[in-house]
From TrEMBL:
Superkingdom as given in the UniProt entry: Eukaryota
Name of the protein described by the UniProt record: Uncharacterized protein
Amino acid sequence: MRDPAVQAAYAGLGTLQKFTDLFNSFNTAGNAWRGWTASVRGATFYKIGDNIPEHTSSLIQSMEENMRGGNNFLTSDAQKAELPSEPVRSTYFEQLMVAVLCDKNPGMSAVYAEAGTGKSVAILLAVAEVARTKTSDFFVVLQNDLAESLKNFLRLSEVSSAADIATSFFIALQERKVRLHLVFDNVLDSGVGGDKQKDILKALARGASEHGHQVVFTMQGKEAAESVAELNGDTTYMAELQDKSYGAYRWTKNETVQLIQRLSDGQQDANQILADSEIPDEIGRWRPRSTKLFIQFGRKPSRPLRSKQETVWVRQLQEDCMFRELHVVKKAFGRHLCSFFSVNTSPFCRHSTTFRVGWFICSHA
């Protein structure tokens, strides 16, 4: 079940852009990024000890030049190259990103979805749509290495200067009534690293929170997202509308059929592709990467491995399934054992009825 609040935020965009308009937007954003980074080659790199207000002024000048030209969106050519010629629209993760970008709360937030669910494409689609409606805001999407991304965007010779320059830049943007949306895609998939990285991220979070800006990290796992959300008190948080149920952002049958129609040569049976590329676990549904790999190479998806947080000794079915459990407490060998009997009756679960019987150590007195 998709969150009505997420769907409402997405519906607030109105009519979505046509594919040609979208790709014109991405081309403009890519050209703007090349101009932004080209201008830093040479003397305009900030070096420790240089004049911070002057460097901030050069960043503001570049931003204002872009906005005067009708562009308020920057992204690299590498990210733009990932876009399919005809992307599937309105996936749940795209809707989530629109809702997150429209959120007025400042600071640093985290969102996550499992690998292969089309996050990077959905992020670019969401940013392009929201940037079209919020023309006084400035949007930047960065990917891969955190240090290199910050050095390129803030024009730094050393990433150790990121905290000082970012804070100064945030203040200058606020003075001009421009809100920055800085999105890091797949930058911290393994979670927050050592102390130096934590210090930089805390400074970004404080600066964004105090001056009304938004920094968003998207990643693959819940544990990595929580390492950002729990980093610095009220300035860092999990996105309010994040769906925490496992596999929530997998694609529906209808979305996957659209993908198959755009990727297959028409000689393959769409129903067979659906059957063979469905994820083989309790949830099922599809990941676009897995479907694409099957179409191109005949590779079927494997059963996903759960993270430590998603695996327990007594296997639970998914969070969106409801259970009735009967517990009988017995004593044996000085410890309490519980026997349980479960019946899954959720209409949202892929399996209509599941029975389980077992034993586990419990804490009943």
